[in-house]
Amino acid sequence: MYNMLKHAHSGLRWLLLAALIYAIIKGFQSWRSGKAFSKPSALIGLIITHIQLIIGLLLYFVFSPLVSFEEGFMKNDITRFYTMEHFVTMILAIVLITIGYSRGKRKTDSTAAGKAVFVFYLIGLVLILLGIPWPFRGLGAGWF
Predict the structure, then answer these.
(1) Scanning 51, 52, 75, 81, which has the fewest C-beta atoms within 10 Å of its C-beta?
(2) What pTM value is reported for the model?
(3) Which of these, 45, 136, 25, 27, lies nearest to 97 by C-alpha position?
(4) Which of 99, 96, 102 has its CA nearest to residue 131?
C-alpha cells in the first residue's frame, strides 16, 4: 500500500503543477486584460491540490517509514525533511491555494478574482516547488 500511495503522490504532482500553472496563467490574463475569470481552471487546481493533501496525509500519519518523531529525528536530514519541512511547506501552500480560490470565487469583478487567484496560487506554487523532494536534493525521491 505504501508504494502505491507513494507513486500516486509523486506522479500526481505533475498534474498538480500543470493545473496550478494553467490557473495562474488564466488568473493573470483575467487580472491584466479584464477577461472573464475562468473559475473551472482554479477549481481543477484546487481539487488536485486537495487530492494530493489526502494522499499525503495518509502517507504521513499511516504508511511512511520516513516520518518519525523519535528523539533525534531532527539530526537526520531525510527524516527531518519528510517529518517537518515537507509537511509544513505543503500545508502552507494548500492553505494559500484554498484561500485564493475562495477569494476568487466570491469576487464579482473578474479583474479582482483573477488577481486573487494569481497571487495566492503563485505563492502556493512557489512553496510547493520548494517543498518537493526533487531527485537532485538527495532526499531519496525520484522523478515519479
Answers:
(1) 75
(2) 0.91
(3) 45
(4) 96
Exposed/middle/buried for 78, CB within 10 Å: 0-12, 13-18, 19+? middle
Strands, E assignment, 33-136: none
pLDDT digits (tens, 9 = 90+) for 47-83: 999 999 999 999 999 998 888 888 888 888 889 999 9
pLDDT reading at 144 higher than 80: no
CB atoms within 10 A of CB 67: 17
DSSP sequence for 13-52: HHHHHHHHHHHHHHHHHHHHH-PPP-HHHHHHHHHHHHHH
Q: Which of 21, 90, 103, 29 is nearest to 54 (CA)?
A: 90
Coil/strand/helix, residue 56: helix
For the range 66-72, what are the long-range contacts, defined as Cβ-Cβ under 8 Å and sequence gap of 24 or more? 66/140
CA angle 139, 46, 131 (to 5 degrees): 15
Q: Are 26 and 41 in contact (CB under 8 A)?
A: yes
